[in-house]
Design brief:
- By secondary structure, the chain is α/β, with parallel strands linked by helices.
- It has one domain: Rossmann fold, CATH 3.40.50.300.
- Helix content is 40%, strand content 16%.
- The protein contains 9 helices and 11 strands.
- The strands form 3 sheets. A 7-stranded mixed sheet has the order 1-11-10-9-2-8-3, sandwiched between helices. The chain has a two-stranded antiparallel ribbon with strand order 4-7.
- α1 crosses α2.
- It is globular and about 50 Å long.
């Protein structure tokens, strides 16, 4: 059952307060540093939500840091190699199988085990250049970390049943993955290494978009706002962006259908939170 946020006041503040309370309660219950997963479709505002939660948790006396799963993307050359060796569609960043999960595991483990003397480097990915930021430009987290927030479009996602993979769901799958080899590989990643990563989550939160159709509009806005460094490729036009989003469609629709999180926050077309409810993954 949805608990709506008050019609008056700031819905974002109300949502952040509820989420921070759940995070702090989970940390108190477990008595250790915790890993929180924050899932949301492209353009849903999950990065801004994660940043606000870090600020709120810090004010509550809790050391917190937010990371994006996007910052663990394989570099451009590694994905080109993956595209040659496994399937051409894997050259495009985004789907499970295009992240460096070893780097993610090492980074998350270091943050969760950090003490007052620790310094943990935080990887970064430059989307305007479609490549990882050089190591000497990464920021560091100094000291203990009580809460680590891992945000991303597929954080916590679960695999589909094999039968669901038989039919393509869009033109990209129909024309460029006619035998289903790409989608079966991606699904296998969700069933294997990504399932092991997401099993580490102590709490899962989903910012639930109204529909997949809404995601295209949000992602168009996001593309226009990307900082483009000198020498970076130009922004994607509408056709290129539609093809790019198609890579994400299957898993995004599956997430909206099964809601793999303990706490679900439905959001409106303006990204404003509407309320919160327990998800199917609730303990």
């Amino acid at each position: 059952m949805l608990t709506p946020f008050p019609a008056t006041g700031n819905a974002f503040d109300a949502s952040d307060s509820v989420l921070a309370d759940h995070i702090l309660a989970r940390r108190d219950t477990l008595g250790r540093s915790i890993l929180v997963g924050l899932c949301g479709a492209q353009g849903s505002g999950k990065s801004h939500t994660a940043a606000r939660l870090v600020d709120r948790l810090t004010l509550a006396g809790c050391s917190a840091v937010a990371l994006s799963i996007d910052d663990f993307y394989l570099g451009h050359s590694d994905r080109q190699r993956l595209g040659r060796d496994v399937h051409p569609l894997l050259a495009t960043r985004g789907v499970p199988g295009t992240h460096d999960l070893q780097l993610a595991d090492v980074t998350l483990s270091a943050l969760l085990a950090a003490d007052a003397q620790s310094r943990v480097p935080l990887p970064s990915f430059d989307k305007s250049r479609d490549d990882r930021v050089p190591r000497d430009q990464w920021r560091d987290h100094d000291g203990r970390c009580d809460v680590v927030i891992l945000e991303g479009w597929c954080v916590g996602a679960t695999p589909e049943p094999d039968a669901a993979l038989a039919d393509p769901i869009n033109a990209l799958e129909r024309n460029e993955d006619p035998d289903g080899r790409w989608r079966r590989f991606v699904n296998g990643q969700l069933a294997g290494p990504y399932a092991r990563l997401f099993a580490r989550l102590d709490l899962g939160i989903l910012l639930r978009a109204p529909s997949f159709d809404q995601v295209m509009g949000w992602r168009t806005e996001q593309e226009a706002r990307l900082d483009r460094t000198p020498g970076a490729p130009p922004a994607m036009d509408a056709a290129a962006l539609a093809r790019f989003i198609a890579h994400y469609e299957r898993i995004t629709r599956h997430i909206l259908a099964v809601e793999p999180a303990e706490i679900v926050v439905p959001i409106g077309p303006d990204r404003a939170p509407l309320g919160w409810r327990r998800g199917p993954g609730a303990a």
